[in-house]
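hey so u asked for the seq, here:
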Amino acid sequence: MLEFLWGFPKMLWSVLVLIGTLVTIFLDAGEVTSSEEVELVNEKCVVLEKALISGQGITTDGEYFYTSGSLTGIKTSGLAKWDKDGFVVLADYTAMPKDYRENLNLNHLGGMSYYDGKLYVAVEDSEDQNPYLMTFSAETLEFLNAYEMPQELLEGSFPWCAVDAENGYIYVHTPLITANDGEGAGQMFQVTTLDLEKVAEPDIKL
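ran it, structure tokens below
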């Protein structure tokens, strides 16, 4: 019974998200504009099942866009690869590796970043106890590696990551600087000492 009650808010949230998604079909999103410094390449509205693979993170390699999405109430964590016209080239609605999902209860693919043919994705569980950085192939969306993050730095959440290839860093959120998760809000973050080359290798431990 308690297990059901704990899961109920997630199920309710998932239902609300689904209703909201359906409502967007009938709403006018309004005019989409961009500044002179950037080029607007697409303004397609993403709804229904495609919203399940695009509601969390987004990154690009300059040719394709990549998105992540999670709806924990129905245990859906997916990745998608899009062309510049807004059409899905490749999608995986069960991108979360089974072993990590079942053994560590990881169920949330969050913010993501692209570097050197790989997608770096911030991953969490429902209780924010097992933060992981996962890498996936940008070409196939295939899972490559999982890197356990230091809980003492990421206690609370791990909603996003950003690769700084030029300097060899991965930027991550940490509540040691701010209690806000910074998910879409532009809060501060800390530089990690993770080595990009080592993150791409299997079975690396801190």
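The CA atoms of residues 121 and 170 lie 11 Å apart. Residues 1-7, 202-206 have pLDDT under 50 and may be disordered.
lmk if thats what u needed
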